[in-house]
Design a protein that fits this description.
Layout (H helix, E strand, L loop, with lengths): L2 E2 L6 H20 L6 E5 L3 H12 L3 E5 L11 E4 L2 E4 L5 E3 L2 H9 L2 H4 L1 E2 L7 E5 L2 E4 L4 H6 L5 H8 L14 H8 L2 H16 L8 H4 L1 H10 L2 H7 L9 E4 L6 H10 L1 E3 L4 E7 L2 E6 L2 E5 L1 E4 L3 H12 L4 H4 L3 E12 L11 E3 L8 E6 H4 L8 E9 L11 H16 L7 E12 L6 H13 L3 E3 L9 H14 L1
Parallel strand pairs: 1-11, 2-3, 2-15, 3-11, 8-17, 15-21
Antiparallel strand pairs: 4-5, 6-10, 7-10, 8-9, 12-13, 13-14, 16-19, 16-20, 17-18, 18-19
The chain binds flavin-adenine dinucleotide.
Length: 472
């Protein structure tokens, strides 16, 4: 029988009211004699995917999360007929492990695939929305790059391989493709994925697929042709009718034993087992998976590793503000026939981009209305996330009005802020893997998962969690 202890109140209330029920539950597990037990700290997609794989393999699994709900960053709500994603909006299912896992759990069958229009992706150029070219022919017709830049691209297959493993994405793109593609295409794309600074993100860690194309094939164009597609990952772009949080909710139901309002404050090894502390209780298991944010992992591991955790503490985060705007369909001149628009920093606008959410998936806006999900902040403009709600909405409207033709004030608005939204894979990110290995060696039975290691996307978090749990 699933034993989720859902709480409708905030984490602080949940913490205060956890005691009698959850304490009893903790002791039950401590006294259990099953040979293979695992405690998973963190009920985001990483922790819950690992929990489901272990459970299916016969492990006795308990998931603990400090918050009052499952899903971590994946959180959505419905108001006035609008379905608003406050965190991630789309899951690109491109890794084989992720796809197999979603198939096995039946969640791929329940997913809604993005509308065909989502293949159109826009950037801003010349004061209007221009589609990112999807084929070589469209590329050569596109106004996004000058003739000189297009001709320079033809020389890409003949440029030598890079040798610097710590090359930034900007350096990599300038070297292989030139400065214009960086400004008009790659820069906006980096805002959309990492909310990051291409001059600081390391290509090998942040965009390993690009890095491998050059290393394995000597050229992005040659590599992409050999792989039969573009340089980007291919896969199904999905969500669920109730938003992405339907996935962690379903995984939590299958896991059964998920305890909310349970903040883990310490971790130690004792008598061949790992023991976690939750308030004034302890819970022991053969294995512990830490699937929290990297700051929490660093705090819990500090007594055991000290300075070896420096790479964890050096990870910088990009903050993000999310602005949902709902309009009557007739109040937006643009047909919104695409995934959305990404905006180059060179355009001088503060909005990083806007998803056409009601185009992407059905049921995101009431009949006759449309929903835009807009982003501000990121590594290059963190102060934007400090604006108050009116200023955030006002700035977004000023930026988007000339591009989308807004004819009236939004009928619906909602804002959300993530002070620590996306960990940035910047200089010395390569040392994070070593710090994870050191932690796992110092505390046998420990495994670290999360978006600070091996990819920030839900696709990577799920794929890494599934692979790790299968190895255990
Ligand atoms: C605004 C935003 C937009 C994004 N957009 C996309 C997108 O469109 N597509 C995409 O693929 N990815 C996107 N991402 C990234 C993606 O959502 C995350 O990287 C991913 O969901 C992280 O999952 P996780 O399980 O590793 O961590 P989290 O979801 O952060 O879960 C960690 C969990 O650990 C819990 N926890 C922390 N400390 C403790 C403790 N001491 N004790 C117990 N529990 C604890 C937390 O409460 C939390 O539930 C976005 C992220 C943000 C913030």
């Amino acid at each position: 029988m699933p034993r989720i202890l859902p709480r409708r109140d905030g984490p602080e209330d949940a913490r205060n009211r956890l005691a009698p029920r959850a304490k009893a539950a903790l002791h039950e597990s401590v006294n259990e004699s099953a040979s293979r037990t695992a405690v998973i700290v963190g009920a985001g997609v990483s922790g819950l995917a690992a929990a489901v794989v272990l459970r299916r393999r016969g492990w006795r699994v308990t998931v603990l999360d400090s918050s009052a709900r499952v899903g971590g960053a994946a959180r959505a709500f419905r108001r006035d007929g609008f379905l608003c994603e406050e965190g991630p909006n789309t899951l690109l299912v491109s890794r084989p492990e992720t796809r197999a896992f979603l198939e096995e759990t039946g969640m791929l069958a329940k997913a809604c695939e993005a509308a065909p229009d989502a293949q159109n992706r826009f950037v801003v150029f010349g004061g209007r929305l221009v589609a990112v070219p999807a084929s070589p022919a469209a590329f050569f017709r596109s106004p996004l790059l000058s003739l000189g830049a297009k001709l320079r691209l033809c020389g890409e297959p003949f440029r030598p391989r890079g040798r610097d493993p710590d090359e930034t994405l900007a350096g990599f793109v300038r070297r292989r493709l030139g400065p214009e593609p960086l400004r008009e295409l790659v820069g906006p794309f980096v805002s959309g994925v990492f909310a990051g600074d291409p001059e600081r993100l390391l290509v090998r860690h942040a965009f390993p697929r690009l890095w491998r194309l050059e290393q394995e094939h000597g050229s992005l164009i040659r590599g992409a042709l050999k792989k039969g597609g573009g340089a980007g990952p291919k896969g199904k772009l999905v969500s669920w009718p109730g938003g992405l949080q339907e996935l962690p909710e379903a995984l939590a139901r299958e896991t059964g034993d998920v305890r909310l309002g349970a903040e883990v404050s310490a971790l130690r090894r004792e008598g061949g087992r790992l023991v976690v502390r939750v308030f004034d209780d302890e819970l022991g298991a053969d294995r512990v998976i830490l699937a929290t944010d990297v700051d929490t992992a660093a705090r819990l591991l500090a007594p055991h590793l000290g300075d070896a955790l420096r790479p964890f503490r050096e990870i910088l985060w990009a903050p993000i503000a999310v602005v949902h705007l709902g309009f009557r369909r007739e109040d937006v001149a643009h047909p919104l026939n695409g995934f959305g628009v990404l905006i180059s920093r060179a355009r001088g606008l503060r909005t990083l981009g806007a998803l056409f959410s009601s185009t992407l998936f059905p049921g995101r806006a009431p009949e006759g209305k449309v929903l835009l999900t807009c982003f501000m902040g990121g590594a290059l403009d963190p102060e934007a996330t400090l604006l108050d709600d009116d200023a955030l909405v006002g700035q977004t409207l000023r930026d988007l009005d000339p591009l989308l033709g807004l004819k009236a004030a939004p009928a619906f608005r909602h804002t959300a802020r993530w002070p620590r939204a996306i960990p940035q894979y910047e200089s010395r990110h390569g040392e994070v893997a070593g710090a994870c290995a050191a932690a796992e060696a110092a505390l046998p039975g420990l495994r670290l998962l999360g978006n600070f290691r091996g990819g920030i996307s839900m696709n990577d978090c799920l794929g890494n969690a599934v692979a790790a749990a299968r190895e255990m």
